[in-house]
Design goal:
This protein folds into 2 domains: 176 residues, 3-Layer(aba) Sandwich (Rossmann fold), CATH 3.40.50.1100; 98 residues, Rossmann fold (3-Layer(aba) Sandwich), CATH 3.40.50.1100. It is built from 10 helices and 10 strands. By secondary structure, the protein is α/β, with parallel strands linked by helices. The termini are far apart.
């Protein structure tokens, strides 16, 4: 079995604004494991248990060269003793990204595919003897695993906010949504018109209205960033000792703070932001540590 490595998860308290009756805290999923960071452990849990039960000899998955999911799967294979294979979107570069270098270190075989070949292979249902985990852990097993995050959310929080990439985590949160709890997702991709359908595919019909999405904080699109975003990351880390990643959590938490400043949240909002991990992705930012 592939159990969660923790029984409790820390909460970092950030803002308590008595004048507005608003509090903002962060659930530190990034701290549960150094490599299988944040929501990745939750999303992978049931896939890995199924692979073990089926005595799979190879676990295959999909992702880009900076994918947190790819490196988490590579390390999960290392600790479970199952060979892993990563189908990587794009031509093989002269120098591998830090993420892919780590994957190779953990024993993952990499196969680079053109975008067309990548998209076609993702739709295939026949990959030989490989046990396939979809890109980003997307799927019913991934969202069921993500639903376990709710057990670490204290009942006093009435507003839950997270970054949205594949939509797997927010679907999981909706599955176990508590009475009086609202769920807001900050979409980190640009122009993803299918994201609502992708989330709802993982949910029963009566839960399709259980969440709200905000598309205003993608900073140019997936894995795009601006100097403003990097400065925000540095400020949050310096002030609160909370590291964020430029692909997901920095964008989403920037959105939280901007919405707060613009009086989006109602009086009495007790907000918990889900830190979904992925800090390893910052290694691809040249000189980021030097600037911080």
């Amino acid at each position: 079995m592939f159990p969660l490595p923790v029984t409790t998860i820390n909460i970092t308290k950030l803002i308590k604004d008595d004048s507005k009756g608003i509090a903002i805290d962060i659930l530190r999923l990034d701290e549960i494991h150094a490599i299988i960071s944040g929501n990745k452990w939750f999303k992978l849990q049931y896939y890995l248990n199924e692979a073990i039960a089926k005595k799979a000899t190879v676990i295959a998955t999909f992702g880009g060269p900076y994918s947190n999911h790819i490196v988490a799967t590579a390390y999960a294979g290392k600790i479970t003793g199952i060979t892993t294979k990563g189908y990587i979107r794009g031509e093989q570069p002269r120098v591998l990204s830090h993420t892919l270098q780590h994957c190779v270190t953990y024993g993952m075989e990499l196969q680079f595919l053109s975008r067309l070949a990548y998209d076609n292979l993702k739709k295939s249902t026949a990959l030989g003897n490989e046990y396939v985990i979809p890109e980003g852990g997307y799927g019913m097993l991934g969202s069921n695993g993500a639903s376990n995050i709710q057990q670490f959310i204290p009942p006093n929080y009435n507003t839950i906010i997270c970054a949205v990439g594949s939509g797997t985590m927010i679907a999981g949160l909706c599955k176990t949504q508590q009475p009086g709890q609202s769920i807001l997702g900050i979409v980190i991709t640009k122009g993803n018109t299918s994201i609502v359908n992708e989330i709802n595919t993982l949910l029963p019909l009566d839960k399709h209205q259980n969440y709200t999405l905000n598309n205003g904080y993608h900073f140019g699109g997936y894995a795009k960033h601006t100097q403003e975003l990097l400065l925000f990351m540095q400020q949050i880390n310096h002030t609160y000792q909370v590291p964020l990643d430029f692909v997901y959590t920095a964008k989403a938490f920037y959105g939280v703070m901007d919405l707060y400043k613009n009086n989006y949240f109602a009086e009495g909002s007790n907000i918990l932001f889900i830190h979904s991990g992925g800090i390893q992705g910052n290694s691809s930012l040249e000189n980021y540590k030097a600037k911080a």
